[in-house]
Specification:
about 220 residues, alpha/beta, Alpha/beta knot
């Protein structure tokens, strides 16, 4: 089994400070939702983020990263073979536990609706058999619960390695779920490694890691 953790992902509901901003309130009226029930999305809320969180306007509100990441992971031969577990950790120290059998909508709008339901109900579709559930948890507690054999963080500032050189069973690999900048969580206690000389989008990094694991396990 291998574990992929998308860490410090920029997935959150609209913070209260932004509720009255025109870009938020107009969209809320159009969608018939409370502002706080919507997912923060820089596609629509960039001006609000820029006003209330200056310096973070190019970082916060990126649910698309989570969407691409989950599609890549869950439709991979590695996951289909039952050898992958995926977790999404957010900037607010929440963790989404992802059932390997869940079908993530390919439509971005449907994905946003699914995540909004998840934030509201804390699970999807039911508490008895959740395919997605979200809990208050930091990444260190998550790792303690997983208890992997080893932990690696993909970081362009880390030691340059070939993925195949560090693979072993029951490993956890952490990938940043943000478009630019550094981890908010202090991940320096883990082994930081670099698989390319420049930053890679989270879903590309996940694809490269998964491909190497599939070869390592002889799946492909």
């Amino acid at each position: 089994m291998f574990h992929l953790i998308l860490a410090d992902s920029e997935l959150e509901t609209v913070p209260q400070e932004l509720w009255s901003h025109p870009s938020v309130s107009k969209q809320a009226r159009r969608r018939g939702k409370r502002p706080g029930a919507m997912v923060l999305d820089s596609n629509f809320h960039h001006s609000a983020i820029s006003k209330y969180f200056p310096g973070d306007e190019n970082r916060r509100g990126r649910p698309d990263i989570v969407h691409y990441f989950l599609l890549n992971c869950l439709e991979s031969p590695l996951n289909i073979s039952g050898k992958l577990r995926v977790y999404v950790h957010t900037r607010k120290n929440q963790v989404i536990f992802v059932d390997p059998s869940v079908k993530i909508p390919k439509s971005y709008n449907r994905f946003i609706g699914l995540i909004e339901d998840l934030f509201h109900n804390r699970y999807v579709p039911s508490a008895e058999k959740p395919l997605l559930k979200i809990v208050e948890m930091d990444i260190f507690t998550l790792i303690k619960n997983i208890s992997p054999s080893s932990i690696f963080v993909l970081n362009e500032k880390g030691k340059s390695v070939r993925i195949k050189e560090i693979l072993k069973d029951d490993e956890a690999i952490i990938i940043g779920g943000f478009p630019s900048g550094d981890f908010l969580t202090n991940v320096s206690q883990f082994s930081n490694i670099s698989i390319f000389e420049r930053p890679l989008p989270a879903w590309v990094a996940a694809f490269e890691v998964i491909s190497e694991i599939e070869r390592y396990l002889g799946i492909l």
